[in-house]
């Protein structure tokens, strides 16, 4: 805050100057003390100038409603919502999230610096605060095939940008623990910034070495015991409640059982689809669910606001106090998080707000560099009886490696083995011709195939089905669309949603995108995908070779153990 702004706010605070806006008769949630008190909140120049009794140019009677700080999403990949940054921010802001800490590594994996620049430009003039953590692992590992490399040298030009808070989730934990040169260059570059982690299931000594080398946060804890080890290593835990990965219940129950102080915890969505945000909310859903599980109400609000602000050094956000940005919510019911109005910089957020948003560069709409494939490209001969199978875990993005006995055959299909599905990943960035093929258990689809250009983190084309004909048709439709989701049944394209922006995002509004996705999800469940599983997000993570235990890439199956992926047959 500059001296001129402080002078203006001081005059308002001392009642020498009229406030731009006064929220009157509010019950204010004080996240510093955990208390609630009554008062007027005076706003000027988008900041809180005073709390007490004030008059303003515009006065709004809160009528005894609660005034709470705007929510902060501690970690998300906004590309995972499949709508443009502007569409996502508008929707989530209406649900109470007024600050987003974004890791754009999806866009960067496809389009490099141009992908990051697109996210920054699209979110610059939005109805919320949007900060960026620079992607740390592009590509995520050396055995994957993505569209770009983002090195320490590439990062330097972004360091002076005030919207860059630090280094995004460091997924290559092996290179951190063993201090490999390229990784240490990145960590050294951000030694005075926040560095986010990504460390599922590390042994205790490895976890401590990971934290010792500068990693400060993590969002991959799926059980409380592991989260406790991370906290003891000095890390801040972002409790993830997304679409595919929902870890909140296990962690909150652990907090309650151990009577833990919650200052080391925040909330994040990581990857959350647009239809889930519309249906249940954004960070508001995490707050509501945590309270329902028994977490003290104020603790839940602190985890959604001040805890995250302090974690990332955002001293102007996270609380209702003088000098803080006027981002707040009017709430009629604290426990059920009934939001009646959202304010960002002292202005009410409305759905119909029209902003000047930069157009997407044409280059970012032509990122699938493939010619149509033939059905034989998906053949998977079984040459030995014991084969590796990817076993999905409902409600999680982790998988288990199964070794099952199958009869030798010239081509495996799910039609022959209804318990299993065939899965394939097709490299799409350079047209290399690489196709990884494997067997999956738990996805359940029969009578067709589902394909997607969203497949973390390299975002090659991933397809799963019970027969080669439908799998081939689904992939070829993706190529024609230049990315998206495709659902094929009985040799025909049943439905599709085009994601022409880097193969990650659509160019329609969130209402239209949601209606389309809901229809496709319903059909996928009718075709056998389990009801508790998001058909698209769950599929997308099967290609991510940094999460245990077994994955698939364009080079084939990949075993992930002790933080190090390796290719297997």
From TrEMBL:
This is Adenine deaminase. Keywords: Hydrolase, Manganese. One of its GO terms (molecular function) is adenine deaminase activity. The gene is ade. SUPFAM superfamilies: Composite domain of metallo-dependent hydrolases (SSF51338), Metallo-dependent hydrolases (SSF51556). It is an enzyme of class 3 (hydrolase). It comes from the Bacteria. Residues 66-349 form the Amidohydrolase-related domain. It holds the Pfam family Amidohydro_1. The keyword Manganese applies. The keyword Ion transport does not apply. InterPro entries: Adenine_deam (IPR006679), Adenine_deam_C (IPR026912), Amidohydro-rel (IPR006680), Metal-dep_hydrolase_composite (IPR011059), Metal_Hydrolase (IPR032466). One of its GO terms (biological process) is adenine catabolic process. The lineage of its organism: Bacteria, Bacillati, Bacillota, Clostridia, Lachnospirales. It comes from Oribacterium sinus. Residues 396-562 form the Adenine deaminase C-terminal domain. It catalyses: adenine + H2O + H(+) = hypoxanthine + NH4(+). Belongs to the metallo-dependent hydrolases superfamily. Adenine deaminase family. Its EC number is 3.5.4.2. Its cofactor is Mn(2+). HAMAP family: Adenine_deamin.
């Amino acid at each position: 805050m500059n001296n001129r702004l402080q002078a203006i706010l001081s005059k308002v605070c001392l009642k020498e100057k009229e406030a731009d806006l006064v929220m009157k008769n509010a019950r204010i949630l004080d996240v510093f003390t955990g208390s609630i008190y009554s008062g007027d909140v005076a706003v000027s120049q988008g900041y809180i100038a005073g709390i007490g009794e004030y008059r303003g140019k515009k006065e709004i009677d809160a009528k005894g409603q609660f005034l709470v700080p705007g929510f902060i999403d501690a970690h998300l990949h906004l590309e995972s919502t499949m709508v443009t940054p502007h569409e996502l921010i508008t929707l989530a802001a209406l649900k109470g999230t007024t600050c987003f800490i974004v890791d754009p590594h999806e866009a960067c994996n496809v389009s490099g610096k141009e992908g990051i620049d697109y996210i920054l430009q699209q979110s610059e003039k939005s109805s919320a605060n949007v900060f960026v953590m620079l992607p740390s692992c592009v590509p995520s590992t050396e055995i994957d095939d993505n569209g770009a490399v983002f090195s320490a040298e590439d990062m330097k030009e972004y360091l002076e940008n005030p919207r860059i808070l630090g280094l995004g989730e460091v997924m290559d934990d092996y290179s951190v623990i063993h201090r490999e040169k390229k990784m240490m260059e990145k960590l050294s570059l951000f030694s005075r910034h926040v560095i986010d982690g990504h460390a599922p299931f590390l042994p205790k000594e490895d976890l401590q070495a990971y934290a010792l080398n500068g990693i400060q946060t993590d969002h991959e804890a799926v059980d409380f015991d592991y989260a406790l080890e991370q906290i003891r290593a000095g890390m801040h835990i972002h409790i993830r409640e997304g679409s595919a990965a929902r870890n909140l219940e296990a962690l909150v129950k652990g907090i309650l059982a151990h009577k833990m102080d919650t200052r080391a915890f925040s909330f994040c969505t990581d990857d959350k689809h647009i239809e889930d945000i519309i249906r249940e909310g954004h960070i508001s859903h995490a707050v509501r669910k945590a309270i329902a599980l028994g977490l003290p109400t104020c603790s839940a609000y602190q985890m959604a606001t001040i805890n995250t602000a302090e974690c990332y050094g955002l001293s102007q956000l996270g609380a209702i106090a003088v000098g803080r940005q006027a981002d707040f919510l009017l709430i009629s019911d604290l426990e059920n998080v009934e939001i009646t109005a959202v304010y960002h910089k002292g202005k009410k957020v409305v759905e119909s707000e029209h902003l000047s948003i930069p157009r997407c560069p044409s280059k970012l709409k032509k990122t699938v560099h493939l010619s149509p494939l033939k059905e034989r490209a998906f053949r998977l001969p079984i040459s030995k009886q014991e084969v590796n199978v990817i076993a999905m875990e409902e409600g999680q993005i982790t998988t288990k490696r199964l070794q099952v006995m199958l009869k030798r055959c010239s081509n495996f299909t799910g039609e022959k083995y209804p318990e299993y599905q065939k899965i394939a990943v097709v490299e799409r960035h350079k047209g290399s011709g690489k196709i990884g093929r494997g067997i999956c258990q738990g996805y359940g689809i029969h009578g067709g195939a589902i394909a997607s250009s969203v497949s973390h983190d390299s975002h090659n084309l991933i397809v799963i089905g019970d027969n080669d004909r439908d799998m081939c048709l689904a992939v070829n439709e993706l190529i024609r669309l230049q990315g998206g989701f495709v659902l094929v049944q009985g040799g025909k394209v049943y439905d599709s949603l085009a994601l022409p922006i880097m193969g990650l995002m659509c160019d329609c509004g969130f209402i239209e995108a949601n209606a389309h996705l809901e229809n496709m999800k319903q059909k996928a469940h009718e075709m056998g995908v389990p009801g508790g599983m998001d058909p698209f997000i769950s599929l997308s993570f099967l290609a991510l070779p940094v999460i245990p235990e077994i994955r698939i890439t364009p080079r084939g199956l990949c075993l992930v153990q002790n933080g190090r992926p390796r290719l297997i047959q």
